[in-house]
Predict the structure.
Amino acid sequence: PRSTLFPYTTLFRSVYPADWRTEADLKRHIDVAVTHGAEQFIIDAGWYGREPGIWHDNVGDWYEGPWLPDGLAPVRTYARERGLPFGLWMEVESIGSNSRLLETHPDWILTRDGKPAGIHEKVIGRALDLSKPEVAAWVESEMARVIETHDLDLLRLDYNSMPLAGGNRVVAGIVENTIWRHCEAIYGIVDRLRARFPQVLFENCSEGGGRTDLGIMARFHTTWISDWMNLPRSIQILNGMTVTLPPEVCNRLFALVGGETASPGSLETQLRLPLFGHPCYCGLVPIWAQANPEASARIIHHVQLYKDFVRSMLATCRVYHHTPVLPNSDYNGWCVLEYAAADCSRGFLGLFRLNPVGSSDYTCRPRGLARSRRDRVT
């Protein structure tokens, strides 16, 4: 039953990328999150390391950067004073080129045929080799230390170093691929940490939506299905992922900033899509004084709609994919999703037109209604 897979209350959370952000910046964004109705605050990549602005090269050094001279404690305290649980991002299976960890343990890099393996944006040799017991032990101890030191309510685990064919090594005269041992190691680590910290939410991220296998999903409360907000691709991603996974575990992003992954699409459509998953919001405004009041009003409206109508039924609803197969390269046509309460007492329906090419009409026959009832459509 899905209710046993997801024992925690679904949270609307505000996610903020903190690449070199100061304490004052983070506190301002907490204020923005509270104003828009957030129920949790997560600091994403960039709170650690020696130099600002290079989160991907600092991974491995899981200590606050010098741009946070008093550490994260004041930010965590402020978030909780405003009623928000506190979470952090880690990419603990990776080793950055600017990290002290690399200087100390270059022998921990994943290798294939004696050469560095694993790639991230053309950077070779960024992956740790968890098939080595000492590396796996360090990974587990660092995750536990970060949870305890920062008194976390949530830990987001990312993994941006693609192992490609994986590492290898010779065992008893046989060349062995290390991916299997890596998976066994990370599964065991998360199992033990879940048992040790039962109050902490564990969130899978991994390249903004990769590594969403059943082994991972058995161990994490939610998963990031994609960084992309780019329409109509983001609609197709949610449609496909909810064929496989229940919607309440599929984090769906909304942001007003975000480069190439977040540009096209109307504000209304971008706000409606997260209602069909687990809503996560970031980058709403730089500071509250610069907020667009009309956009903020629409955000607050949709957040409240999620809280008042969607959330109570999301973990137990029936999910109907009216358009289950959407070719990735063909944006013509429609995507139609329907979520209905098991007792047919309520439901909601999303009809997303993917492209102005093709018919502007779609005949939808809801499947979650009871013929014996009369329903009000809003």
About this structure: DSSP finds twelve helices and 17 strands in the chain.
